[in-house]
């Protein structure tokens, strides 16, 4: 089955698009191909960014414009991009009220945002050396934002009863990896636990399904390309996983499946990694010779 048309009439919010190779972009394109109307949120200037310097404002504006161009080019199908800062509750509320004011009701949400300042700076210190500020920022953006996003969308009446939310995770949430990822690994572990708790609570209160999908090591995106040593983990995973390393389209199809209406599936942490999770060693670098 091609899957085309399975999401006809559904409106789905996708967060986390940065460039054409980002996983969120591939997911959004697959959702549009299946008939969904896709709305994308992107970091950009909002009324809640007070006291910004001209340089900071211009950076946010350029980020938003880049995302819009990516969405127009890679997703198409009338997909639109709206500025939203997922670390500011009022900004998420504005997003919900904007959509609600247009009569838009969201049937699905894809949470694909993450940030680790230590990775962005190229330092990637061990966990014991991570500052409180960097650690809390990573958890805020990469994990807590799922709570804030669903809360505000429910509060504005924008998230439909019976909707589905899917977040993107990684096997490092469970296993130690040798490439620099320790702070983000803790954040992904928190994200997965949040997924389970929200699945229980929101399923009972709103019929909302909440699931997460772990994906293979992936270096083609801007985020993945910034992680030192991840290319070795990617090659190792491709060599040892029973089906080889998964590709972004595999992830997109699984996310689309979890967003399909009528599924009684919630609280799941799915693995789309070619079977890498079956092995005793996780997505680590190959051992040194003689080890």
Structural description of this entry:
The chain has a single domain, classed as 3-Layer(aba) Sandwich (Rossmann fold), CATH 3.40.50.720. Helix 5 packs parallel to helix 6. The C terminus is likely disordered. It is globular. Strand 1, helix 1 and strand 2 form a beta-alpha-beta unit. A seven-stranded parallel beta sheet has the order 3-2-1-4-5-6-7, with helices on both faces. The chain is built from nine helices and seven strands. It has 291 residues and is an alpha/beta fold.
Structural class by helix and strand composition: alpha/beta
Number of helices: 9
Q: Low-confidence stretches at least 5 residues in length (pLDDT < 50)? A: 287-291
Rounded to the nearest angstrom, the distance between the terminal CA atoms is: 46 Å
The H/E string reads EHEHEHEHHEHEHHHE
Quick check: average pLDDT? Answer: 90
| CATH-defined topology | Rossmann fold
Note the main sheet. 7 strands, parallel
Tell me the fraction of residues in β-strands, as a range: 15-25%
CATH class, named Alpha Beta
CATH architecture: 3-Layer(aba) Sandwich
CATH superfamily: NAD(P)-binding Rossmann-like Domain
- When the domains are counted, the total is 1
Query: What is the molecular shape?
Result: globular
Blueprint (SSEs and pairs):
Elements: E1 11-15, H1 23-33, E2 37-42, H2 54-74, E3 80-83, H3 89-101, E4 106-111, H4 117-120, H5 132-155, E5 159-170, H6 182-206, E6 209-215, H7 222-225, H8 230-240, H9 248-259, E7 269-272
Parallel strand pairs: 1-2, 1-4, 2-3, 4-5, 5-6, 6-7
Question: Which tags fit this structure?
Answer:
alpha/beta, globular, 9 helices, 7 strands, Rossmann fold, 291 residues, single chain
